[in-house]
Fold this protein.
Amino acid sequence: MDTNRDCGCASAFPRIEALVDGMLDPIDCAQVRGHCDRCESCSAELDIVETLTHRFRAALAEPPPPGVRETIFANLNIPTDFRTPQ
Ligand SMILES: [Zn+2]
């Protein structure tokens, strides 16, 4: 497949999240990135998805504040030893 040919919005836009998640093979990755380099709206979507993904991953890397687990289980009326984190 010719990776220099623009795949178009209809092909690139649905694959942007997969691109950011590293789920595309090198050819698909080159097609989507190549399209985003030429398309303002897909490039904007790529920026949004990359920003949100990085912020979400950073938030998940942080441990929750002390007491959050106990508060959630108390509000659900479930014993805190019901399930222990891995
Ligand atoms: Zn586009």
Notes: The radius of gyration is 20 Å. The pocket of zinc ion is lined by residues 9, 12-13, 35, 39, 41-42 (CB under 6 Å). The chain has a mean pLDDT of 88. Helices lie at 9-12, 16-20, 26-38, 40-61, 68-75.
